[in-house]
């Protein structure tokens, strides 16, 4: 019985090792180890979190807090806006990073006096661009999913309550993002969090005033 368990353990370890040593995971690991990949992923992700959160705040204020709110209209608008943001930012980041990586490869080729089309350097560059783009695409999905929750749980008659909960969640996302930034920068997480949440409050007040005046 013990021999069977050992065999199963060896098989499991072997399967995991083979998975981690596959071409895909090896390429991802190499891309993540390049100096520019993780900082770019972090930078674009934070930027898109802010953009998508502010867009959602504007949608909630303009629709859910209007005189005739509609849960379905709010949900559809948030979903379509997040999908549009995911596609637009994903493509724009992909093209921008591909250009930067292309320039970098050309500079290396000049130094090495050879083409790098079929080398690990070129493949790592491609995978790095894809990782950065995919990470950026995730940001609108996260913010949209979190802020949509109250509208999906509460009934149509409670759409105003759902709106205020969603606004609180959106500002909380900004606060958590700021705290994370502060920890990564090894500075005051609370200060960064409050600063980002404060930016969300300012955006909320500005959008609310526009909606009230119009």
What this model shows, in words?
The protein has 214 residues and is mostly helical. It has one domain (22-213). Helices cover 86% and strands 0% of the residues. It is built from 7 helices and no strands. The chain has helices at 2-20, 23-33, 37-64, 71-112, 120-153, 159-184, 189-213. Helix 6 (159-184) packs antiparallel against helix 7 (189-213). The longest helix has 42 residues, at 71-112. It is elongated, with a radius of gyration of 23 Å. The protein starts with a helix and ends with a helix. The relative contact order is 0.13.
Task: Write the topology of this structure.
Layout: H1 2-20, H2 23-33, H3 37-64, H4 71-112, H5 120-153, H6 159-184, H7 189-213
Helix pairs in contact: 2-5, 3-4, 3-5, 3-6, 3-7, 4-5, 5-6, 6-7
What is this structure, in a nutshell?
The protein is mainly α and 214 residues long. The protein is 86% helix and 0% strand.
Secondary-structure element pattern, one letter each: HHHHHHH
How much helix, percentage-wise, in residues? over 70%
Strand content: under 5%
Mean pLDDT across the residues is 82
Instruction: State the helix count.
Output: 7
| N-C termini distance | 76 Å
State the major sheet: none
Total domain modules: 1
Uncertain residue segments? none
The structural class is: mainly alpha
Mind telling me the C-alpha Rg? 23 Å
Name its key features:
214 residues; mainly alpha; 7 helices
